[in-house]
Write a structure and sequence with these properties.
heterodimer, A: 282 residues, mainly alpha, MetI-like fold, 12 helices, extended, B: 276 residues, alpha/beta, Rossmann fold, 6-stranded mixed sheet, 4-stranded antiparallel sheet, 10 strands, globular, P-loop_NTPase (chain B)
């Protein structure tokens, strides 16, 4: 009797789940179809006409770069200081933002015994810093502080603090509480529990996210040059604005940026692989 | 030495520990037995202040330790070392550092944050490890050790705290019989040589009989038995566990030499149990 009733309940539960899945699929299809027709109607020239002209500018750049011959590498070397400035902005911003993120993460996770009333405050604080893209903060700061790498650095650091803080606190929420309890039982205070119970567990993941953020921040810092923060972005904006005749310089910047980002990506993914693999957390 | 006065803990409507009162007059090895949920762990955790008590007092040297706060509370936590079922070591740190963490309470915060431990700390940690026979593992990471070895590291950490008493919350429940014996022998040895109170939650009756000077039986938060292990007959055990006639402890005994009640000759404890 009881089994029969249970069977009925399970069957109706399954039917309801299937209904929900169907509604979900229909919703997704609806959004895609309506989104496409909306954007197509708003396009000025239509997608396929634009496609034929799409490659005109890139091919112009390539032709100009080809014509400059071996001098191309000289041009590339000339942009190295600007590239270094961008890397500098990214590195300093990631370090400062990362340090802030550790503090924010430790103050916003119940799992590591953060002070209760502080948790919602720090979480909202991180939401706010994360909500504004670097570009918006940088525009705002450049307006106040003038065109220089400093406002860009502050902008990237702020966004990094929020973004990494969120990721760090999620790492915190997933750690094993037993070591913390063991240290509590020894009479260790909160900072000591964080240092020895939490940090050894989270350090590899923190560093991994930190390196990932460094990659993202190099790209972000390059873009910030467009709004006057200096570095390679500013050079790129100048050469693109120049239009015809500066194609070789534009190409040189693109190649330099591409190579740099690729190197950073490769090095950081190698390091991250090592970190999560076998290390001694000291 | 330590006196429990109507110690109570309630979780919502459920009373986990109900007005428990008893006194440990001299350094004894006390075994607390009872089925899961009887309140054994809660009782131990209240002594170490990991779980706040709802009411009652625990008096040690004239002081109510349930009223301690802040730094004095942490100092007390250092004085009553805790050994856990799951060891609660820091898995990614090496063994010797794990043991030295037992001294964190005595060190300044700033200094300890930079992982600065003195030569004395290292020497003390090594001698504690040596006493438990695992000094050779000192540089390995804690997570690389077997369960039995990890529990011995945890006991070494407890020794490092130089405590008045050791609380052991089911220290052998996740260990195989051989390692269980090593761990229980170590606890017994610490009790005898250092003359410390050892309060130990146990799941197996034969262990309680062979190692403890005194057995406290808990059922539904109440103390239903308190006496020497010789009085712990099968009938009393049935009463503690709320079991019927079919209850046969030999069926789940972890003693290697059969039922510990009939053949305890292989373990060092019985003679000591009488004198203690």
């Amino acid at each position: 009797m009881a089994v029969a009733a249970l069977e009925q309940e399970i069957m109706s539960l399954r039917k309801r789940r299937q209904l929900y899945s169907l509604i979900g699929v229909l919703l997704v299809i609806g959004v895609v179809v309506s989104g496409y027709s909306k954007s197509n109607s708003m396009n000025s020239g239509g997608f396929f006409q634009g496609l034929s002209q799409f490659f005109d500018y890139p091919s112009e750049i390539v032709v100009e770069a080809w014509q400059s011959g071996p001098a191309f590498f000289g041009i590339m070397a000339g942009f190295l200081p600007a590239m270094l400035e961008t890397l500098n902005i990214a590195a300093v911003a990631t370090l400062i933002g990362g340090a802030l993120a550790v503090v924010l993460a430790m103050a916003s996770s119940r799992n590591v015994d953060s002070w209760g009333p502080l948790i919602p405050v720090t979480r909202r604080l991180m939401d706010i810093t994360r909500a504004f893209p670097e570009l918006i903060i940088a525009l705002f700061l450049i307006f106040i502080l003038g065109s220089s790498p400093v406002p860009a650095m502050i902008a990237v650091a702020l966004h990094t603090a929020g973004a990494l803080g969120k990721l760090f606190s999620e790492v915190n929420e997933n750690i094993d509480r037993k070591p913390i309890e063991g240290l509590s039982a020894c009479g260790a205070n909160w900072l000591q529990r964080i240092r020895y119970g939490v940090m050894p567990q989270v350090a590899p993941n923190y560093l991994s996210y930190f390196l990932l953020r460094l990659e993202i921040n190099v790209r972000a810092s390059a873009i910030l040059g467009f709004v006057g923060a200096g570095g390679i972005g500013q050079e790129l904006r100048r050469t693109i604005g120049w239009g015809q005749g500066a194609g070789d310089e534009t190409a040189a910047i693109f190649v330099l940026l591409f190579i740099t980002i690729m190197i950073i990506d490769q090095v950081s993914s190698y390091l991250r692989g090592k970190l999560v693999g076998s290390d001694r957390a000291h | 030495m330590i006196q429990f006065d109507k110690v109570t803990k309630t979780f919502g409507a459920r009373t986990a520990v109900n007005k428990v009162s008893f006194t440990v007059e001299q350094p004894q090895m006390v075994g607390v037995i009872g089925r899961s949920g009887a309140g054994k762990s809660t009782l131990l955790r209240m002594i170490n202040r990991l779980t706040p008590a709802t009411s009652g007092r625990i008096i040690f040297k004239g002081e109510d330790i349930l009223a301690l706060k802040g730094a004095t509370k942490r100092r007390w936590q250092r004085d009553c070392a805790m050994v856990f079922q799951q060891f609660n070591l820091v898995p990614r740190l090496d063994v010797v550092t794990n043991v030295m963490l037992g001294r964190l309470n005595g060190h300044g915060t700033l200094k300890s944050l930079f992982n600065i431990f003195s030569k004395d700390d290292v020497a003390a940690a090594l001698s504690a490890l040596d006493r438990l026979g695992i000094a050779q593992e000192a540089t390995k990471r804690a997570e690389e050790l077997s369960g039995g070895q990890q529990q011995r590291v945890a006991i070494a950490r407890a020794l490092m705290q130089d405590p008045h008493m050791i609380l052991a919350d089911e220290p052998i429940a996740s260990l195989d019989p051989m390692n269980a014996k090593i761990v229980m022998d170590s606890l017994r040895e610490i009790h005898e040589r250092d003359n410390k109170i050892v309060l130990c939650n146990l799941h197996t009756l034969d262990t309680a009989r062979t190692y403890c000077d005194r057995v406290i039986g808990m059922r539904d938060g109440l103390i239903v038995f308190d006496g020497p292990p010789s009085e712990l007959s099968t009938d009393v055990a049935r009463e503690i566990y709320g079991a019927d006639e079919s209850f046969n402890e030999a069926a789940t005994s972890t003693s290697i030499e059969g039922n510990g009640q009939t053949n305890p000759a292989g373990v060092m404890a019985p003679a000591a149990a009488v004198s203690g």
